[in-house]
Amino acid sequence: MTAMTTRAPAATARRSSQPRGLLLALLRLHRTALLFWLGLVAVAAGALLWAIGPGADAAWAEYTDLGCDRPRPNLGCDLPGPANARYQTAVAVGTGLLGLLPLLTGAWAGGALIGRDMESGTAQLAWTQSVSPARWLAAKLALPALLLVTGTFTVTLLHRVLWSSDRSLNGVMGWRAWHDDGVFEINGTIAAAQALAALALGVLAGLLLRRTLPALGVAVLAVVSLSYLLDDLRPYLWPVKTVVTSPDTTPGSGGMIVEDGALTAAGARVTYPACTGEPMCEAQHGITHYYADYHPASHFWPLQLVETGILLAVAALAAGTAFVLLRRRTGAAV
């Protein structure tokens, strides 16, 4: 009884230490990627923090000193000055680095995280060291996912602070709209979901091909294809609003235009007539009104959440397929 009681806690302690040891080994093995990720987050966050504070203040002071905030600004206000250029560069760095994240994540996950281990036999060696294939794959997915989501949400929150704090500067200059690709993706939950989808797709590519370079290439191709597909689908993920105006008014101004054109007296939708200021041109073409199907700013979160759900579904499907594939290849060892 005493011997059995003594062995049980030891076995329990050994089993509980295995996940910790696996995660530490994973961090040591991919410490270069970890340092790169921390550096990327630090640079993006630093750029956005500077833009939120002194960058925005200097850009607005320069703008007002030039008299560009007056009812009749001069022609020089069409081009930003040095302070405005620095501000825009900082914002571009912060958003651009996060925009590259899905591509970098997919390439790393397919090549270094999975493909290299499968090609070199490191994965098979790990499976013989009391680490099951399922636990190995779970660690490969869970730890990067945690780091990716934490860092991405940090930059996203900073960008939302920037977006809400520079409304006056953004409003007068009209640099960015809420539905622009870079702004829309980084201002909500999509950026983190993109990173998770890229991670899962890269892992699946690595398990399928078991070669570093082919897995890297396929993962990049899958991530790029998914990004382009969702960019095209985004306007149709939520019901649009339709506005009808007279020919001298621009419909849907300030929103994400999905479709626009002209209306005839019978209500038929036609393309804009080729009118360049000719009198009675619209009447000659039978045009009575203009229309626009568009998303107003109030559709930001519905569009965000639907696209996020699609990305998370892709990530879950790819991860589930990876586990099924690993079980079939390793059999009872999973």
From TrEMBL:
The keyword Transmembrane helix applies. This is ABC transporter permease. The chain crosses the membrane at residues 34-53, 90-115, 136-162, 182-205, 212-230, 308-326. The keyword Transmembrane helix applies. Keywords: Membrane, Transmembrane, Transmembrane helix. It comes from Streptomyces hawaiiensis.
